[in-house]
Amino acid sequence: MNETARQLLARIEAIDTAAAENRMRAESYRHMADELKDARGQATSPDGVVTVVAGAGGSITSITFSERARETAPSALSADVMGAIAEAQAIAARMQADVVRRGLGDTELLDRVLDSDEQLFGAARPSAAATAPLPVQAPPPGAPGRRPARPVEDEHVEEFVLRKEGPG
Predict the structure, then answer these.
(1) Cα(91)–Cα(114) distance, rounded to whole angstroms?
(2) 20-44 as b/e, with b when 16 or more CB fall inside 10 Å?
(3) Could you give the 3-state DSSP secondary structure of residue 14?
(4) Number of C-alpha atoms within 13 angstroms, CB side, residue 61?
């Protein structure tokens, strides 16, 4: 085999290697995109009255009230809901940040997001080796509320009225 043929063969092998690496990278990105879509955060108010689940992008997928919600003052219930929403969204965001870190490594933008969460919620950063979902934590008292990025329109909303049971 002459030198020109060896060079061509080496180039073909390099192209084949690069193509295989690109296929593996594309599969890794698809897997990462699926994990990002599936990220969920769940938080329960400190008194256990409200549990919120937030999906990818901070969208609220469910809010559940315990039976004790009927006995809770509206202002306290409102604070519980807002705190649980904020914490569930923060947990979902941290889970997504962990997926990005595992997929792409540390980045400056990821560090800024994690710094912001740490300041707002006192949330610990996920470790670089973490692969399991982060534990659900109750929000600290007086945690600031955060609204979803886009409004959620309900198809059907029922009125929920808190009343004392008994005479009167």
Answers:
(1) 11
(2) eeeeeeeeeeeebeebbeebebbbb
(3) helix
(4) 16
pLDDT in tens, the chain (168 residues): 799 999 999 999 999 999 999 998 888 888 888 888 989 999 999 999 999 999 988 899 999 999 999 999 999 999 999 999 999 999 999 999 888 888 877 767 667 766 776 776 665 555 444 433 434 344 444 444 444 444 444 444 444 444 445 554
What count of other Cβ atoms lies within 10 Å of the Cβ of residue 140? 14
Q: What is the DSSP letter of 109?
A: H
- The H-or-E segment that residue 68 falls in is none
The two three-digit tokens of residue 144, written as one number? 């600031």
Contacts of 139 (CB under 8 A, 6+ apart): 43, 45, 46, 83, 84, 86, 87, 121
C-beta of residue 38 within 8 angstroms of C-beta of residue 57 = no
